Amino acid sequence: MLMKIAGGMLVLIASSGIGQTIGKNQEILVRELAELLSMLRLIKSELRYAINELPEAFADMAPRLKGSIGELCSNMAQLLANGYALSFQEAWDISMQKLREESRLGKGHLSYVEKLGGILGHMDVDAQIAQLELLENAMIHEYESEREKTGQIKKLAGSIGILGGLFLIIIML
Amino acid sequence: MDNLMMLPKERKENDVHAHEILRILSVRLKNILGQADIRWSELQEIRLRVNEPVIIIYCNREYFIGEDARMKRNRQGAVIVTSADVNDTLEYISNYSLYAYEDEIRQGFITIQGGHRIGLAGKVVLENENIKCVRHISFINIRMSHEIKGCSRKVMPFISLHKEAAHTLIISPPRCGKTTLLRDIIRNLSNGSELLPGMTVGVVDERSEIGACYKGIPQNDVGIRTDILDGCPKAYGMHMLLRSMSPQVIAVDELGGSQDIEAVYSVINCGCKLIATIHGNGVEDIKNRPGIRKLIDERIFERYIVLRGDKEIGRVHAIFDQRGSILYGGDMLC
């Protein structure tokens, strides 16, 4: 009996842990979206006011942004400073690959980041800023909707975790 | 093989030039040109045109570059430039940031590290009859920067008057070395010599040809007491320098417009010395321009240095004083 109780407890801890993790992932996703938005805004101000070159701009942004988005900037700064062996698009694709592996962003979110690679570096600052604003608006919408969902998902995942655990215990008993 | 015959100093200079130029070329062109047997310090131009062969101007002669990286005089088997080559090269020239060079591109060129000048041409977009930007850039001309230190050594005694610099006008047709001579005069005046003590020199470098500033830092040696206003129109620049940097000498390249002439009077009246250049074949030739005629008639300039490039670039044809008396006549190679 003691063994059964211990096993049941372990099942309950594991299943509620899974629920917690799902909730945490959603939190990280929202944080990453917020960082992505900050990156867009920083790039915009770099283009509009500082007129820094992109390698310098990415190097400046990297320590100011957290997590995988900060990593993305840091990778870009390194690749672009690497003696002109890559085109901007190639460097962006390499950094995107890392971002895909490391971040919680979904395909839809990543497609926005991909688009960013095609926007940056061109001559017309106004056109770039207009496109960045378009992306920013779409990103704000995504961010708001994911943020709204976060509370619900956390609760739901937590509850399902515990209830799923209890259900398993009942079956086991 | 040619490179083996270079002195260590020459080899170092050659390597620096090679690095500065190769790094801005697309990877494909970099690989091909990197293998070519070129003395980079002797290279004058690289011309890239989409769907046309790579052309280099080397020791005053035009060459094509073959796929085997050999220089050749005919275009058969020459490397053809693709639009990807031009786009990648543009990215590298602008450090992935063409937008940061919008003003320079509007003027048609970008100066890169080392002072080399990249001329660009493509589809010009106009806005209110002004150039807004250049799109679809398909033509690139990489012009190597060549400093010739010491080239003004022989003319310095002529422009030194009572331990001061004389108001000097260098007259020359295009591509005869007037900017190179002006740069060396600036360096000599700034550093000082046996003839003249070092002076504070203000340079208005409207086309970035004198100092070849890259991110505000002169890539050419313009002396220890030289301040440069880079990319600034001459007339504004001369006034700004007078107000802000208290120069003893002001140097400008290619005088021309009426505003420039007005600014010259401001410089002269402030007690500053002026060293300038102008396009022309001689004193009589430039007298046809109203503003310049006035300056000559009023004997503002104390020395006129006339360059000719018919025999060899950088030959001083004659030096005159303010009265038109010839101080030097002949062919002195600077």
Verbal overview:
The complex is a heterodimer of chains A (173) and B (334). Chain A has one domain. Chain A contains six helices and no strands. In chain A, helix 1 packs across helix 3 (67-80), helix 1 (2-50) packs antiparallel against helix 6 and helix 4 runs antiparallel to helix 5. Chain A is elongated. With 173 residues, chain A is an all-alpha fold. Helix content of chain A is 85%, strand content 0%. The longest helix of chain A has 49 residues, at 2-50. With 334 residues, chain B is α/β, with parallel strands linked by helices. Chain B folds into two domains: 2-143, no CATH class; 156-333, Rossmann fold. Chain B is 28% helix and 30% strand. Chain B is built from ten helices and 19 strands. Chain B has helices at 8-22, 27-35, 83-93, 102-107, 156-159, 178-191, 234-244, 258-269, 283-286, 290-297; strands at residues 43-49, 55-58, 61-65, 71-72, 109-111, 117-127, 130-143, 160-161, 164-165, 168-172, 201-205, 213-214, 217-218, 226-230, 249-252, 273-279, 303-308, 315-321, 326-333. In chain B, the strands form four sheets. Chain B has an eight-stranded mixed beta sheet, sandwiched between helices. In chain B, strands 4-3-2-1-7-6-5 form a seven-stranded antiparallel beta sheet. In chain B, strands 8-9 form a two-stranded antiparallel ribbon. In chain B, helix 7 runs parallel beside helix 8. Chain B is globular, with a radius of gyration of 21 Å. The model of chain B has no long low-confidence stretch (mean pLDDT 90). Chains A and B meet through helix 2 of A and helix 3 and strand 7 of B.
